[in-house]
Input
Amino acid sequence: MSELTLTVMRLGFLAVLWLFVIVAVQVIRSDLFGTRVTQRGAARRGGQEPRAQRQAAPPPQQQRRQDSGRGGNRQRRGAPTKLVVSEGTLTGTTVALQGQTISLGRAHDSTIVLDDDYASSRHARIYPDRDGQWIVEDLGSTNGTYLDRTRLTTPTPIPLGAPIRIGKTVIELRK
Amino acid sequence: MSSTTNTTTVGTIGAPSRRNTELAMLVFAVLIPVFAYINVGLAKDHSVPAGVLGYALGLGLLAGVAHLVVRKWAPYADPLMLPIATLLNGMGLVFIWRLDQEPSLGSAMAPNQLMWSTFGVALFLAILIFLKDHRVLQRYTYISMVVALVLLIAPVFFPGVNGAKIWITIPGLGSLQPGEFAKIIIAVFFAGYLMVKRDALALASRRFMGLYLPRGRDLGPILVIWALSLMILVFETDLGTSLLFFGLFVVMLYVATERTSWIVFGLLLSAGGAVAVGTFESHVQTRVHNWLNPLELQGGGVTETAQAMYSFGSGGIFGSGLGQGYSRLILGIAPKSDYILATVGEEIGLAGLMGILLLYGLLIERGIRTALAARDPFGKLLAVGLSGAFALQVFVVAGGVTGLIPLTGMTMPFLAQGGSSVIANWALVGILLRISDTARRPAPAPAPSTDAEMTQVVRP
Output
């Protein structure tokens, strides 16, 4: 057998051995099961919105508002554009406010699923009223929803930047 | 789940079973050793070896049967452990067969090794089929302690081989290395014991200079194990088993209690014990002396350590090529078992040796990953223990052959010649696969809770 063939086989063997190692590492990479991390970006926005509306079942008047043009209320000066979780396990999560109802709770179909022992499965919801003012409403939760320091008893308008406290989670509306 | 910006969402997805990935990797893992086999034949005899078809079919059959059984009885098991074990075992067979071609190195071992591999795979399959749930092993915590101690102590009553008493000789059947099986059984005991006792070991402690000092009475178990491993060292003069036994306990103690102080204690105790025994045990002294002075001339030649180093040096980065090394010059003991890494390093070079070591690393990683994913504390500890034992063994052998630590008589798992070793390691992989199947199996759908219905909003 010629020297060349043997050299090619020698290097070829090393190549396939390392190829196996690399493929195995790739399998491990694609095998990180259990959680899937998705970059939320503009590209996904279109696809996710119908689902949010379906599950949140916004009040009738808000539905009308959305139909007549969702841009209208968002353009108001000083209106919040996003909801930010500032404390708790979901810290850093932001949800854009686009006229849809945001439900909060431990139930899996909530817009923001709270992983918090002090939250009820359907704890509270945040929705815009007819004028585009965002309202937070406690849905009869066990431990209550707090706006600043006061426990909510009725649907209450949310001032910009005021902390809404649910168990260990704090969320606020920002521009 | 509404449209959002600047952030990521974390959601659960169903764990796929990944059996097809495993099949593809297995085909790969069978083809590589077959390629190596042909390569050896071409280099040695300038022709494709006659047994290549039989070898390929044999390895392929073993892998295929194993895959089908895993598909049926452990459908969610890890997709990489079986292919990596098959590849290592196949490469081991090729290297042993290659060393059989050198008449100076003794009689042919490869057919025997193939038979032992078949027994190993059979035990692997039996574990997958009959061990439905690894938690069954928890019931045998103290029985396994007794069995492991008997296995560890038994070799004292049999004659030693090459200075180490690690063999049980059964007349007519051959010899057995009980330490290989003891490492699995002792991991079962440690897992069951630490699962019950870990709170006492972790919490009852005082803080001193940044370390958690355990109470005196909690030091009991580690001292007993330490004394036992020292006794193994003294009476069996086997540094490897002693190190494996004690290291495994320290690793599992650390994982169970999350206290760094146990590692510190373990290292201090093992260093102290090794030095103490080394001062009066001549066999250990010889090993340490050879390790420190590898180039010293002994009985007309250099030490085994030096021969292994010459092999590595002769191989260089890319190796001499399969079948083209000078392994016939290794005239020490056990070129096919303890020193097989020297041939590996010579013929496929640093690049190949690193690839082989990475395969071991990946197998261990999958074991630790299994421990992370396991849902029950016993399974977690057992998976850590088994992969820890495997890792320690690889470290002890590879470290010994490359001259990092004094050489000890242990076999490279799957690669080296040795019936007990290959059978025990297939059993070890079988238990790990069983744990990983349980760990990766999708959780059953939660029963609908009546309370959840009560708090739902009633929509008009």
Observations:
- Chain A touches chain B through 55 residues (CB under 8 Å).
- Residues 158 and 164 of chain A are 8 Å apart (CA to CA).
